[in-house]
């Protein structure tokens, strides 16, 4: 079994659908596309606590 090393992102929680993961911290989420971190910040300080992947992969 091999593992990918993921760099970047802050973590307080992890959301996964079994194949992908996102790190959740405060009002931002980070996921990786081809090993590159992508971070989204929710407007107005909305917390991402408890966030999950949707069925369509968003």
Features:
single chain, 58 residues, mainly beta, four-stranded antiparallel β-sheet
H/E topology pattern: EEEE
What's the overall geometry?
globular
Strand order, sheet with most strands: 1-2-3-4
Major pleated sheet: 4 strands, antiparallel
User: Which regions are unreliable across 5 or more consecutive residues at pLDDT < 50?
Assistant: none
Mean pLDDT value: 78
Structural class, judged by helices and strands?
mainly beta
Span of the ends, CA to CA: 27 Å
Helix content: under 10%
Beta-strand percentage?
A: 35-45%
Radius of gyration: 11 Å
DSSP, total strands: 4
- Number of discrete helical segments: 0
Description:
The protein is mainly beta and 58 residues long. The protein is built from no helices and 4 strands. The chain has strands at 13-16, 21-25, 28-33, 36-41. Strands 1-2-3-4 form a 4-stranded antiparallel β-sheet, with no helix packed on it. It is globular and about 40 Å long. The mean pLDDT is 78.
């Amino acid at each position: 079994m091999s593992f990918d090393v993921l760099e970047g992102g802050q973590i307080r929680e992890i959301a996964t659908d079994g194949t992908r993961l996102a790190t959740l911290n405060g009002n931002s989420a980070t996921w990786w596309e081809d090993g590159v971190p992508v971070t989204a910040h929710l407007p107005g300080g909305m917390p991402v606590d408890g966030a999950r992947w949707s069925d369509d992969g968003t």
